[in-house]
Each structure stands twice: as structure tokens, then as C-alpha cells.
Amino acid sequence: VRWLAAPAAALAIAVFVAAPWLEQRLAWSAWVGVAAALLLAGRARGWWGEFWTLAGATAAIAAAFHWTPKVLAFALDAPDWVGLSVAAPIVLWDALRLVAPILFVARLRTDPLAAWLPAGLLAVVLEATMPAVFPWKLGYAQIAWPRLVQAADLLGPEVTTLVLYAHAGLLAWVVHLLAAAARGGSFLAAAVRAPRAVVAAAALAAANLAYGSWAVGHWSRVADAAPRIDVDLVQANPEEEGVVDSLREQTEAGGAAPAGPPALVCWPECSGGCYDA
After folding, report:
1. What pLDDT does 173 receive?
2. What percent of the chain lies above the pLDDT cut of 70?
3. d(CA 277, CA 275)
4. Shortest CA distance to 209 belongs to which of 156, 151, 155, 157?
5. Arithmetic mean of pLDDT, 71-81
6. Are 124 and 162 contacting, i.e. CB atoms less than 8 angstroms apart?
7. What is the pLDDT at residue 254?
8. 3-class DSSP state for residue 265?
9. What is the mean pLDDT of residues 222-246?
């Protein structure tokens, strides 16, 4: 039964990490997944733990970006198996970027309650420097809660990932407190003795939330006071034949509305019709 523990933990963490990419309102789920990975990082040492840690990261990426094989097959105008073959190394590459911070703190034998900081900093460096076909950031999992990602306009999108790690670090601390209380210790006494890394996580999370709240309020007021223009956003299915003609027809229909033509018409990525063309 013991040998099932590693794959079961890897699968559970993968589900939590991938969930916000499938349903954005589950932003908190990524905190749980990363917190669990930090708490269990000590068991990721050795080939068995490292293998299943990488397997869990691969499963998380594959689930979060499940559309990749189909999109690549369409882009290449090729069968589905070709899209899957091209997607496999991309998923594995992104999984390596996702898992590297956890394996890093595991190798350093970092205290799980302090691991969020070195792991988060390494994740930021990798996201900023490591090439990727889809340059996503782990912090994008929080995008459903705008106040948590506004700091990207100050420090770049990678800071959202560091904030996610800070939330995971705080969650790991709460788990530690609950475990201490379950063993008969004092919850309050343990909370007062919070390590500096936990204090830093709380400070970062609070500062990020404060700035995000201010930014959302500020730009909402600016937008409300700004001049208004009419904008048409035109979308068509890029898989259909004649997609450009469809975009033109929808644009003309919008311009014929009683309010008159818009000041701006935006066509998205499908305006090119097909990638292979």
C-alpha cells in the first residue's frame, strides 16, 4: 500500500493545480496544490519521489492545456495523432518548469514552512527566462480574482506566481498549526511563533491585496470618467470555411445598427482564417 502513496499524492496535487485552468473561480485550488507540494517536498527526494513529482506536474499541465493537441493538429492541418505527438514534448517541457521549484527545495532539504520563498523565486526566474511555446505563468490561475493580479502592471506577470506561492506558504502554515493543535499543542502559541518566512508571505499577500484593491478602484474611477466610444468585438469560428467572409458580414451588420457604425472594430486571432494559410 505504501508504494501507492506517491502516485496518489501526485494525482491529487495535479487535480488541484489544474482546476483553476478548467474553472477560473477555483483560483484557491492552485494554492492548495502548491501548498501540498511544498509540505510533501521532503518526500520528493530519490528517483521514486522525483518521478512521481514530475508525473504529477505533467498530468497537471496536460489537464490544464487539454486543448493543445487539437489546436496543434488544426494549425498543422494534420491528423490528431500528429497534434498529440507535437504536444507531448511541449507539455513535458512546461511540466519541467512547473516542477523544478519543488525539486529544488526538496534537494536543499528546505523547511516546508519556509520553502515557499526559494521555490517561488525560482519559479519567477524560470518563467521570466525559460522559453515556452505558450508563455503562461502559474499566477494566471488567480486571474478570476483581479485584485490578486494587478501587481503585474508594476513588476511584470511573473510576480503573480510569487504571490501564489506566498498564499500557498500561508496555507502550509495553517496546516502546520492545525496539526500542532491536533497533537495537543496550543494553536495560539504556535501562531505567535510564526517563522520569518511565514511573516514575509503574509506581508507580501497583504501588500499585493492592498495594491490590487487600490488599482481596481483607481482605474474603475478613471474609466467611469473617461470619454466613451463604441467598439465592436467580432468573433467567428476559425475552423469554418469562409471565416473571413463571416467576420466581414458580422462587421457590416454591426455598422448597420441604429446607433451607427462603431469607432473601432476588433477582429481576434481568427481573423487570419487558418494558421497553416
Report:
1. 92
2. 92
3. 5
4. 151
5. 87
6. yes
7. 81
8. strand
9. 83
143-198 per-position pLDDT tens digit: 999 999 999 999 999 999 999 999 999 999 999 888 877 777 666 666 667 788 99
- Residue 233, C-alpha cell as written in the block: 468585438
Q: Using an 8 Å Cβ cutoff, are 9 and 40 in contact?
A: yes
- Asked if 180 and 187 count as a contact pair (C-beta separation under 8 A), the reply is yes
Cell of 134: 505558450
b/e for 142-162, b at 16 or more Cβ within 10 A?
beeeebbbbbbeeeebbbbbb
- Number of Cβ atoms within 10 Å of the Cβ of 257: 11
The distance of Cα 196 from the centroid of its chain, to the nearest Å, equals 26
CA distance 10 to 52: 6
Angle at 43 between CA 40 and CA 45, to 5 degrees: 130
How many angstroms separate the first and last alpha carbons of the chain? 54
Q: What is the pLDDT of residue 225?
A: 95
- Taking the CA atoms of 66, 70, 72 and 73 in sequence, report the sign of the dihedral they define: positive
The secondary structure element, H or E, covering residue 233 is strand 231-233
Helix, strand, or coil here: 143? coil
CA-to-CA dists, residue 234 to 240, 272, 275, angstroms:
15, 13, 18
Non-local (6+) Cβ contacts of 39 within 8 A are 112, 172, 175
Please give the residue that has the higher pLDDT: either 35 or 2.
35
Query: What pLDDT, on a 0 to 100 scale, did the predictor assign at position 275?
Result: 46
